[in-house]
Design a protein that fits this description.
The protein has 225 residues and is mainly α. Helices cover 75% and strands 0% of the residues. Keywords: Cell membrane, Membrane, Transmembrane, Transmembrane helix, Transport.
Length: 225
Amino acid sequence: MNLYDLFVKPYENYSSLQILLEATGTFFGILSVYFSIKKNIWVYPTGIISTLIYVYILFNFGLLGDCMINVYYTAMSIYGWVLWSKNSKDHIHVEVSWATNKERIFAGILFVLSIALVTLIYYYKPYIDNQFSLEGTHLGLYHLDWANWLDVITTSIFLVGMWFMAKQRIENWIFWIIGDFICIPMMIFKELAITSVQYLVFTIMAILGYLNWKKSLKEKSTIKS
């Protein structure tokens, strides 16, 4: 399979609106990560725009299970927005730190619960994708391919990453790096080539974000000492 088949051919049957929406969602997603690196609260409004666009895209593709997960992303972004607003002195920027042991234990529990939740959504996905009708529908996980199982894992990784980010913890970037890297081949498989490029950019930006937040904390510690 050549680059044309991967990045152009899937879009031959897409409308101009669908292509524009995916490109717009990608733009705001990248902008959101940029603001995150800068510890700027605009990470959340730009991120919400991106996730809402993908809610619309996935709904129109009939991927209602994936759509519901993006609704959850949107809700988590609103939670993070509120939390950052409370913890920001200038209502724009926040201070960052490493997570406590208690927070890391909670993150582990959240990861396991997220896997259970997303697996449950996929279990009922045939029912959801059939417009919430059981007629001719068989519940189960039989319909999952390797990309779907990766989606279960990456979704759980991202949910923990979003929680760490809402708490302004440096560990959030570790989860974004792992999840974004895994999503690159997964999005190509789903014929969302623009989105796969987005995740490549996300991976690079997440590495920069990790280094930037570590540097920021080190500089803050040096000033205090």
